[in-house]
Design brief:
Ankyrin_rpt-contain_sf, Ankyrin_rpt, mainly alpha, about 55% helix
Amino acid sequence: MTDDLDGETLAFAHRMFDLARGGATEELAGYVDAGLPVNMTDDKGDTLLILAAYHAHPATVAALLARGADHSRTSDRGQTALAAAVFRRNAEAVRALLDAGADPDHGSPSAVETARFFDLPDMLTVLGRS
């Protein structure tokens, strides 16, 4: 798929993923509001939402969810934004994802499995599984 894109388009896409990783909420939200696909994925299947969750940016997570980001999408490795937020021990992002309807048992490993594997009882509590 990336073979079909020119260098300028690829550079723009990489910049959008960097905005998600960096928590540039307002700038990224502006691009989504202007037409950037909110569920855009990188070459590993990571969505903007997964990247924002993994890099512990709850405001960016909330902004993407408010714009229709699909919290049930999994990366090519089966990981979800919720599992990423649990791994990073970011309760605010976890709560935002749960409030949006994210399933703690979805994905491989799921958010619950991640919390148990890494012995994160605080995250199990947030997930309602303590």
